[in-house]
């Protein structure tokens, strides 16, 4: 070219940067337990979640290729009281765990709600019996154990009876309806006549599960932001129940059916799981041995043990198995530990994530915001198409 008199030559090239055309279905599974009230954590979580939603939605109010869901969790999950007659709920006490906290012959939880003057079912549910608690098996009326039992934390023994036995109970909201001479705390707790025409001024049957309901998948930016803003913190920590419902809202099967088919290659499904602590349902010096939660009381053996320490290990085991089940279904998992110093829960969340790079540790409110922004960047990444 130099012989021909050309010393330089302009070369035209270009790259085209476009948004991926893969659709996203994202579920935020967020710890809304009582410990989130400390150090401004719930406020920081709302802000970080808002940033994530705004970054992914951008200026679009209803994008065709993006859906979000929100699953706040504590000791259990509130699915929404509007699903009372959905066919998912165990309305006829067919589930083998329905009402086991009441005296014989009074197992139907709905009967006890009907007796109370000012407390109807708020939408909280208990975990299904194993193995359905960690599976996405659709509800089937022919198998009661695939249906969900309404959450009902029973009135625990009066302080008089508790004092006589050297025990302590934290959810005593009604009189026991037995004579003060009867110190049988289990009988006092199981008694159902005490609910007749009573007004409950405390949380009562909602104890440990009074968070806002699940927000199913939606492509409405405003709907998701409003749900995030309404989050409140209360209750103890049962991660596997929250994670299981995070999976269910992404599923195309009942109970929620907004999710695309697992076989649809144009859709990526994502769970973002955050916790600020370990699985913890208490270790109490009374006959229940724990707070009431989505797995009942530890003393009832629903976790396969009546030993408190082993019950908490089992909650970790079920969390780990759920992570495996969800990833096997083709769902991507991001995990975040928020101001957590316990290496056990850090390792549990690290192993739960789809890859090591999808686990984030956030020791401060500001780092939480940065980590959510990094996740948003990964999910909304650009690609070079030409």
Question: What is this structure's SSE topology?
Answer:
Layout: E1 17-19, E2 23-31, H1 41-57, E3 66-73, E4 77-78, H2 109-115, E5 124-125, H3 159-165, H4 185-190, E6 215-218, H5 221-229, H6 239-250, E7 267-275, H7 308-328, E8 332-338, H8 343-352, E9 359-362, H9 365-379, E10 382-384
Helix pairs in contact: 1-5, 1-9, 6-7, 7-8
Detailed description of the structure:
The chain is α/β, with parallel strands linked by helices and 386 residues long. The protein has a single domain, classed as Rossmann fold. Helix content is 27%, strand content 13%. Helix 1 packs parallel to helix 9 (365-379) and helix 7 packs parallel to helix 8. It is globular.
Give the total of beta strands.
10
Q: Secondary-structure element order, as H and E?
A: EEHEEHEHHEHHEHEHEHE
Mean pLDDT over the residues: 92
Give the CATH level 1 class. Answer: Alpha Beta
Overall tally of domains: 1
Report the structural category.
Answer: alpha/beta
Strand content: 5-15%
- Kindly report how far apart the N and C termini lie: 29 Å
- Main pleated-sheet profile: 6 strands, mixed
Q: How many helical stretches?
A: 9
Tell me roughly what share of residues is in helical segments: 25-40%
Fourth-level CATH superfamily: von Willebrand factor, type A domain
Major sheet: arrangement of strands:
6-3-2-7-8-9
Query: What is the alpha-carbon Rg in Å?
Result: 24 Å
The CATH architecture category equals: 3-Layer(aba) Sandwich
- Label the overall shape: globular
CATH topology term: Rossmann fold
Question: Which parts are unreliable, with pLDDT below 50 for 5 consecutive residues or more?
Answer: 13-20, 382-386
């Amino acid at each position: 070219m130099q012989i021909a008199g050309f010393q330089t030559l302009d070369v035209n090239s270009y790259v085209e940067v476009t948004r991926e055309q893969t659709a996203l279905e994202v579920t935020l599974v967020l710890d809304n337990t009582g410990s989130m009230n400390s150090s401004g954590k719930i406020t920081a979580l709302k802000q970080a979640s808002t940033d994530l939603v705004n970054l992914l939605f951008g200026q679009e109010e209803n994008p065709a290729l993006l859906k979000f869901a929100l699953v706040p969790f504590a000791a259990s999950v509130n699915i929404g009281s509007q699903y009372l007659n959905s066919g998912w709920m165990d309305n006829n006490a067919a589930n083998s765990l329905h009402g086991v906290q009441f005296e014989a012959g009074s197992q139907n939880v709905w009967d006890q709600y009907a007796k109370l003057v000012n407390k109807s079912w708020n939408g909280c549910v208990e975990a299904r019996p194993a193995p359905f608690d960690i599976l996405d098996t659709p509800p089937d009326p022919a198998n009661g154990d695939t249906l969900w039992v309404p959450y009902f934390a029973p009135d625990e023994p009066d302080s008089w009876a508790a004092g006589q036995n050297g025990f302590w109970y934290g959810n005593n909201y009604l009189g026991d309806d037995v004579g003060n001479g009867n110190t049988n705390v289990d009988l006092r707790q199981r008694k159902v006549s005490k609910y007749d025409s009573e007004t409950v001024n405390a949380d009562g049957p909602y104890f440990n599960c009074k968070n806002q309901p699940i927000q199913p998948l939606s492509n409405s930016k405003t709907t998701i932001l409003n749900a995030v803003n309404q989050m409140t913190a209360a209750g103890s920590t049962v991660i596997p129940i929250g994670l299981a419902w995070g999976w269910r809202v992404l599923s195309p099967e009942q109970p929620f059916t907004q999710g695309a088919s697992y076989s649809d290659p144009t859709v990526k499904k994502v769970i973002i799981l955050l916790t600020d602590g370990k699985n913890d349902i208490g270790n109490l010096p009374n006959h229940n041995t724990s707070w009431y939660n989505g797995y009942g009381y530890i003393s009832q053996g629903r976790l396969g043990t009546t030993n408190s320490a082993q019950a908490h290990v089992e909650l970790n085991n079920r969390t780990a198995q759920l992570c495996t089940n969800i990833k096997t279904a083709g769902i991507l998992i991001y995990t975040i530990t928020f101001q957590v110093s316990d290496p056990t829960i850090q390792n549990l969340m690290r192993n739960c994530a789809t890859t090591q790079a999808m686990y984030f540790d956030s020791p401060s409110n500001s780092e939480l915001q940065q980590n959510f922004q990094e996740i948003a960047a990964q999910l909304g990444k650009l690609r070079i198409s030409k």
